């Protein structure tokens, strides 16, 4: 779907100090390189400042420090000056999405299966072939995607949007303005068993999942219900795709995790943390607020000091890696040999 | 849903040597810390023994070695003595779940699409908007979750329960009393291609997946069908969420795997193994019975001796890691330098 | 389902130089070991050449170099000689699948929800309880699996087959002859946020996903839509299960990735690459054509030279690993100590 927006439309909605013809029309947001007269572009990373001179973008969004250069650029065109161009860009994408995406009409699709004992707000949308079980509550303006499943007594907060084919388990709750992508499973059983005579006796998972406001959860991510108490995601948490959150994990406000992360049971992760893709956090650990974990790092003990933590094997061409890996298997002996040499030389 | 259970109810069902007022009522199972008079608690890890003195739990489950201390605790209350308190706790959660969870009525939901050539036992349940294809057999007391898909000629054993939105592929079978969580895909094609002239020719996967009794499979886990023969999970295997089981893998009885594990094609894993989260097992390997693999370990060759195996890069603050990782890239040279020093000193 | 095929059938369809009774009947394809008179077997790996002498396979497929040995084998039976036995085997599995698998009748299942503004080719199949949204186009002979979801304006090319329960997001497109397995999510939002005042402002993802011809995508794999431009998979790409492809990734022709791989946003991966299971590619990197990455390797910088790259911690028994890992945390200091020794000895 193509949309056309004038510079006046943008500034009326998002503010900023504008210079240029406000009747100019734009149909694309894009990077400085490759931009045309109908592209709105932005400069947030000073590294790309040199591209200002060459861009043909009809409008560029810049910080005050780049305002003069942007206004005097050879390619001409409009300028929007704003303290945080990247944030302005984010809001511009939101404006674009709101204009370009058709809205589902509110109401329950005739093929959805909504239990008589469920409460769906009249302004909410329930998509085709969705199931909403008894006791579930779907809030004002919420959207339940087609083929999704809302379990018994689950609660979906106001203006929360579920993509097609999401599962929210019995008794689990999401706050307001959350976004949940396709394939997400909230509230499957945590992995709990008591060993007995060489086999595993199931510990039924009696807790639920409680998710705050403004949380986003990526495709095919799983968040298990708690064993006795609940698994908790606080407000503003952002999870990417294919993440595993074990039972009774607690994730603090505005913490973000990239794809393929695993968090084992009862880990307690602070607020404002970032966890790199494919990192793993072991169970029963604590990470304080403001911890940043690099991609693929395995966190095997608590981190009680904010900071940046890493642990990844450096990759190399295969032959070099093979030699180093073979030596690594005898590293402790190598240390002993160095110690022996040191003794000889004293 | 709240439930209330008397001490008499618990002991009637689960046994144990009880002391205290059997008319006491409980509405919660919980840890010693934070317990109230209506909480049943338990002590299985001697590390927490000190908490016995402080707990306000109305009832505690303990081993004979802690019986006297539990009975004489300052907070008072009942005691159940049993040889394995953790196992007792597991069974108590099962009792709780059986009492608190509503059961679906047996029968096929009117919106389910069940082929005329499928056999669904009269005591089985098929949920809303599920599909059961021709030739499929659903056993006594089995539950097919809403929006699940049972392929052609697939077999679901007696009392096996599928959560909403599970896929069981054509010709695949599950034994009795299995539990399968949402998003699981059993029987997608294994990853098999013959390279030819710079592209990949598909090897159709003609085997199926055969799963034993009492197997549990976590959310969004995938178990591929075999290339020629079947992929096999023996009785009592427990898989957590987001696990990938390649074609023709064989997993022995009562082996358990934590979340995000990957097992490549034709690996043969013994019985009573445990595989830590995010570990990877390469293809065509053998792990004998009783092998325990640590979290995030990559198993690159067969393990023919039971034991505990690990291989994880130790994480550190980023600056320390960077220095060590840089040195690691020259570790083989460092060994040569140590060797040269040793020669000089002889 | 059992099928029976004569040697004449096979050679009529797949060619090759045959010796033996072409009326022989086969009901199984299988490895040399364990084969019976009704098994067609093949030898592609010279390592297994010794098995030719013992096999009881009714027919073996071999390269010209093994033709004489195969024809003179003690167990007797037919021989097919072909330049690439593994490729012949792949095509034989395709013949087998075509004969043994029932085809869905073309047409839209009465329980599917197809928007009046969608275009479904008369020869295409739309399964039970599938959803096809407005503006979507489903091509000639394409198969939309039961309970799948085709978003607005999405395009499914001719003869592409979606298994049950696939999601293709709004505006995303697949080429011809693709195969997409259950649980796949194409076109969920990429993970993009602008940080502001301690929280995350969503960057709406305005791009789509464009997938070429002959692409195969494994179960529960996720391919995110681009932020501004599209995420692209070129022709012939093969992805295994549980893979995460971030926004604006570009994957070149005939590149294959094993299970559990993660590729972060804007990575550009060349043609004819292979990426081992659970490997991770960081964002904004480039891998040229012909790069092969080992299992579980984390690629943290661009690779501009074709070749084989690795970076995995070698696993060991836990006690040995613990010692080596502890020493590794002081590796940089060890290097300094070696340097100090070297200075003393000069």
From TrEMBL, chains A, B, C:
<feature type="domain" description="UDP-3-O-[3-hydroxymyristoyl] glucosamine N-acyltransferase non-repeat region">
    <location>
        <begin position="27"/>
        <end position="94"/>
    </location>
</feature>
<dbReference type="InterPro" id="IPR020573">
    <property type="entry name" value="UDP_GlcNAc_AcTrfase_non-rep"/>
</dbReference>
<keyword id="KW-0012">Acyltransferase</keyword>
<keyword id="KW-0808">Transferase</keyword>
<feature type="active site" description="Proton acceptor">
    <location>
        <position position="247"/>
    </location>
</feature>
<dbReference type="InterPro" id="IPR007691">
    <property type="entry name" value="LpxD"/>
</dbReference>
<comment type="subunit">
    <text>Homotrimer.</text>
</comment>
<dbReference type="InterPro" id="IPR011004">
    <property type="entry name" value="Trimer_LpxA-like_sf"/>
</dbReference>
<comment type="pathway">
    <text>Bacterial outer membrane biogenesis; LPS lipid A biosynthesis.</text>
</comment>
<keyword id="KW-0443">Lipid metabolism</keyword>
<dbReference type="GO" id="GO:0009245">
    <property type="term" value="P:lipid A biosynthetic process"/>
</dbReference>
<keyword id="KW-0444">Lipid biosynthesis</keyword>
<dbReference type="InterPro" id="IPR001451">
    <property type="entry name" value="Hexapep"/>
</dbReference>
<comment type="similarity">
    <text>Belongs to the transferase hexapeptide repeat family. LpxD subfamily.</text>
</comment>
<comment type="function">
    <text>Catalyzes the N-acylation of UDP-3-O-acylglucosamine using 3-hydroxyacyl-ACP as the acyl donor. Is involved in the biosynthesis of lipid A, a phosphorylated glycolipid that anchors the lipopolysaccharide to the outer membrane of the cell.</text>
</comment>
<dbReference type="GO" id="GO:0016410">
    <property type="term" value="F:N-acyltransferase activity"/>
</dbReference>
<dbReference type="GO" id="GO:0016020">
    <property type="term" value="C:membrane"/>
</dbReference>
<dbReference type="Pfam" id="PF00132">
    <property type="entry name" value="Hexapep"/>
</dbReference>
<dbReference type="GO" id="GO:0103118">
    <property type="term" value="F:UDP-3-O-[(3R)-3-hydroxyacyl]-glucosamine N-acyltransferase activity"/>
</dbReference>
<keyword id="KW-0677">Repeat</keyword>
<dbReference type="Pfam" id="PF04613">
    <property type="entry name" value="LpxD"/>
</dbReference>
<keyword id="KW-0441">Lipid A biosynthesis</keyword>
<protein>
    <recommendedName>
        <fullName>UDP-3-O-acylglucosamine N-acyltransferase</fullName>
        <ecNumber>2.3.1.191</ecNumber>
    </recommendedName>
</protein>
